[in-house]
Design a protein that fits this description.
There is one protein chain. Strands 1, 2, 3, 4, 6, 7, 8, 9, 10, 11 and 12 form an eleven-stranded mixed sheet that branches. Helices cover about 30% and strands about 25% of the residues.
Length: about 325
Amino acid sequence: MNKDTALVIMAAGIGSRFGGGIKQLEPVGLNGEIIMDFSIHDAIEAGFNKIVFIIRHDIEEVFREVIGNRIEKLCAELGVSVSYAFQDMNAVPEGVTVPGGRRKPWGTGQAILSCKGIVDCPFIVINADDYYGKKGFKKVHDYLEASEDPSDYCMAGFVIKNTLSDNGAVTRGVCRMNAEGYLTDVDETSNIIKVLGNAEGDFGVEADGIGIDPESLVSMNMWGLKPELIDLLEDGFKEFFAVTPADRIEKAEFLLPMFIDGLIKSGRAAVKVLDTDDRWFGVTYKEDKPVVVESIRRLISEGVYREDLFSDLK
């Protein structure tokens, strides 16, 4: 019998670089679909049978209008459950005071912690505004189905040259692995840009003037995790507040990749890197949207998706 497995979508981001508005809800498909629709399709196709949206209370109404109600109806027909978790800036450990200047929740680690009591099975984590392609969902799902160890995780590793924006710098977690393909380090690297080469279509990759191998694997926050991690995050969140200096806490973030990196280094978790050559795209900047729209059209014309997106699942 197949295990229950959940798709957890982190959709609580404010999207400040997008220039206002809720970038996760921007229509990009032929019928007004948003990027999340394609991830949900690919996850259900891969075998995931639960969906959990992580959102904020202040976007709940518009979120349900744009996607939530529609996906709930679809999933009811497919035997897939839908739940909501709410990431709240004020949901902090007992004894912690939220700084008066804080304006947003505490990062991706807190986002997954908000799923406590909701997620009770192996799960995949993704960003709401990233398109990942089908291969990562299938590889992560199959790994989670086969794995019994509660400290055995996995991660889809994307080739860095396939994850860049033409419209500005991006931040990526550059991965280092051992000979067995297990993650040893995640180097969170900012200001990553394309550097045009001499030949047409040729480009290199740099961060702050330092070259990066274009074939390097990076984390795009597509993790395959176990429910036991959520309890570890609860303790980690308390430690985060205990060790972060008072003059930095107002803008500090409790980040999932950094927490997992700590588990690896302390021998409390192992993360298998599952490589995928699918091309990522997403809406980091407003100027990215036309590229995403065109990419979706191309995938439909190539037969990767139907014009009526979910019709092949029914």
